[in-house]
Write a structure and sequence with these properties.
Elements lengths: L5 H10 L7 H13 L2 H17 L1 E2 L6 E2 L5 H4 L7 E5 L2 H9 L6 E4 L17 H7 L7 E4 L5 H14 L5 E4 L15 H9 L2 E2 L1
Parallel strand pairs: 3-4, 3-5, 5-6
Antiparallel strand pairs: 1-2, 6-7
Length: about 200
């Protein structure tokens, strides 16, 4: 079998580092990129670099932002007394796709996982508790994934929040167990939100 040219091999190696991209997919993408006009490749590379350089975390909720606050935290109409707690910014995007939730978010940037050495101090639970000192907050919706780590994280947060006298709800299990919110369709997510329950 002929060996790949070094520039192609480097492209394949870098593309294969992306999630869900195996060696064959990376090779297909590399060959596709090679067949593109040079100006289009330059635009693609620039968009990736500039996009990554411009994105930061919202100082309030931890979502992706281009400034100090994300668009949701800047929107005064979103302050309806609800905070939806999610694992990462991709989950915010998933819930926003259903266009039915009018509150704000809190992104944990992970879930509790003792097996991997991830404890409460490793994710943004302390920041959540500070936000909950605001008297306008009435409900905390726990929307972590319905897997072992997500359930453990939701239970842990519920135990911390309930003594504060706030309503603590968990999204219903219309979302299949073991799946990720980012891959769940809008109808399933909407049903899960409608069927959330107090913890």
């Amino acid at each position: 079998m002929a060996q790949q040219l070094e520039p192609i091999a480097r492209m394949v190696a870098q593309l294969a580092r992306l999630p869900s991209i195996g060696q064959k997919s990376a090779q297909r993408l590399a060959y596709h990129i090679i067949s593109m006009p040079l100006e289009d490749v330059k635009e693609l590379a620039s968009a990736l670099y500039q996009g990554r350089k411009a994105i930061r975390y919202c100082q309030c909720c931890g979502n992706y932002a281009t400034g100090d606050l994300c668009n949701i935290c800047q929107d005064e109409n979103r302050r309806n007394g609800q905070i939806c707690v999610v694992r990462d910014p991709r989950d915010v995007a998933a819930i926003e796709r259903m266009r039915d939730f009018g509150g704000t978010y809190h992104v944990l940037h992970g879930t509790l996982s003792p097996m991997e050495g991830i404890g409460p101090g490793d994710i943004r639970i302390k920041e959540l508790m500070v936000r909950l000192e605001d008297d306008s907050i009435k409900e905390v919706i726990l929307a972590t994934n319905p897997d072992i780590e997500g359930e453990a994280t939701a239970s842990y947060i519920a135990r911390l929040v309930k003594p504060m006298g706030l309503l603590v709800t968990r999204i219903a299990h219309g979302v299949p167990v073991g799946s990720d919110l980012e891959y769940t369709d809008e109808i399933t997510l909407a049903k899960a939100m409608e069927g959330r329950r107090e913890m």
